[in-house]
């Protein structure tokens, strides 16, 4: 996880106060982790909101709707009938039946991001992780190969080599306290490793496109500005 230097935080707070003073009629929406805000609160904040954990009804609603959406998406419009909802409901019921006896997961599913990951894993693999470490490991494996296998999409690189490439790249970003990168940086760090693993069969542009479009583990936030889909993967 990238930590922002205290001096940078103070600079950011000062800049926000200046903007607020200059554009008083504008609305500013600022997000922060709770601890970060409590240690450096902003003046002139009219409304302070905190994202709360999901309650049981919200969890059930999310999982049920997620399964219905995925099942509907898998069926062509010509073959669509009400049967997909029945199948989706059976799977979501199984989800809650299994998760109700797992105390570790019960604590995790109140977090919207972790709930999405766990639901994702259950849908594609039919299993649940035992702990947080296993959750991140399994979701990475799923994104880097197993989802493509399930969808019968061509896999550009096997999972083991994907792990080697992304592990070293993520470590490089973390050491440099960096989150966002451009293609030139990706190419510079990845190219040698990639050639050692596959020779000239795949270039870095193809690999980056694969990670974005097929795996979803990297996202393009702006033109030529990339980052991991979530800092947990870095």
A few lines on this structure:
62% of the residues lie in helices and 4% in strands.
Structural class: mainly alpha
Count of extended strands: 2
Helix percent reads 55-70%
What gross morphology would you assign? globular
What is the number of helical segments per DSSP (H or I, 4+ residues)?
10
Terminal residue distance: 7 Å
User: Quick one: biggest sheet?
Assistant: 2 strands, antiparallel
The stretches of 5 or more residues where confidence is low (pLDDT under 50) are: none
Q: What would you note in describing this structure?
A:
The chain is mainly alpha-helical. It contains ten helices and two strands, in the order ααααααααααββ. Strand 1 and strand 2 form a beta hairpin. It is globular and about 55 Å long. The N and C termini lie close together (7 Å).
């Amino acid at each position: 996880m990238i930590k922002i230097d205290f001096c940078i935080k103070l600079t950011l707070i000062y800049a926000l106060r200046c903007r607020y003073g200059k554009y008083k009629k504008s609305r500013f929406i600022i997000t922060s982790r709770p601890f970060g805000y409590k240690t450096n609160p902003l003046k002139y904040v009219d409304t302070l909101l905190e994202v709360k954990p999901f309650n049981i009804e919200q969890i059930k609603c999310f999982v049920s709707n997620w399964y219905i959406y995925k099942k509907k998406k898998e069926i062509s419009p010509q073959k669509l009938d009400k049967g997909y909802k029945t199948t989706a409901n059976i799977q979501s019921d199984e989800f809650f039946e299994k998760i109700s006896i797992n105390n570790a997961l019960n604590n995790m599913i109140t977090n919207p991001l972790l709930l999405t990951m766990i639901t994702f894993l259950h849908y594609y693999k039919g299993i649940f992780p035992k702990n947080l470490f296993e959750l991140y490991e399994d979701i990475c494996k799923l994104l880097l190969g197993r989802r493509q296998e399930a969808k019968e999409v061509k896999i550009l690189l096997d999972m083991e080599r994907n792990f080697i490439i992304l592990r070293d790249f993520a470590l490089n970003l973390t050491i440099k306290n960096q989150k966002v990168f451009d293609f030139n940086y990706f190419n510079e760090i990845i190219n040698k490793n990639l050639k050692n693993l596959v020779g000239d069969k795949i270039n870095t542009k193809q690999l980056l496109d694969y990670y974005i479009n097929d795996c979803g583990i990297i996202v393009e936030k702006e033109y030529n500005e990339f980052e991991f889909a979530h800092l947990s993967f870095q």
